[in-house]
Structure prediction request, 323 residues.
Amino acid sequence: MIVEFLSQPWPWYTSGAVIALVMVLLLFFGKSFGFSSNLRVICAACGAGKHVKFFDFDWRSQLWNLLFLLGAIIGGLISSEFLAGDDAVQISQATIQDLSVLGISAPDDLQPEEIFSLDALFTVRGFLILLIGGFMIGFGSRYAGGCTSGHAISGLSNLQLPSLIAVIGFFIGGLITTWVLLPLIF
Amino acid sequence: MKGLKYILAGILFGIVMSKSEAISWFRIQEMFRFQSFHMYGIIGTAVILGTLVTYIIKKYKLRDYQGNPIVFTPKEKSVPRYLIGGTIFGLGWALTGACPGPLFVNIGHGYWAFLVAVGGALAGTYFYGLIREKLPH
Prediction:
């Protein structure tokens, strides 16, 4: 019964509350919620500190964040293996219409086949979308000193003006991709 | 095991991101097209509750589980760093429909294509470290 209940898509207010809870848990563990730092920690753990000063720090002190990352992967696995509903993402009709103009069909899963299936990945366009998209995420979040968790959740909760500026940047970039780049790519 | 609590917190995060569909490219598109309240509701609820708890922690000088004061480090003041860096991040966020957390949650979900995006994100982070002295901060 409980699994059936949890398998439904969760409403936004439950999700917002649980994300705030995760942030608070980490604060009471004596840490702070910021996911993108992990990318720097992984670079450091792979030995990037030998060549680049930015990665020359005691990454082992950040092991807790890598464990959090590991948990996030397990959380995704649990959701898909044990809590998966059979329903497609219920996005608005307007979005479905807009995306169909780009040649992306209505959701029958969490992610569009046209971008995330292995067939799409093994095309030049599909591969570059993910590689370049990822590159900008990594470069931009480190340049801005944080991502959605560090700035939009932790930073805004602490009423940090820099985080507000970063979040405005997130939206400028997101709107450019959505309205200018995607129509060029698809 | 001291690390277990971080894994459990991560699991909770992974499940909530999946079950709220916040890891879905479709939901991010819907957000950037202003065609649904869903993502704004998630971020808004988290920020309102987060602000409340942060305020309480500061007001009552609450301590963490080891008895140390909980400290919030103010972010350095700057505009170009947050605006330019943030914009570049946003370009990638809308393209892959995922921020750093969901990149990994999606891999747990079995969307292997995200491994390429993670590879890109690590390369981007490394490249930032390489040229950071030359960038306006």
Summary: The radius of gyration of chain A is 19 Å. The longest helix of chain A spans residues 161-185.
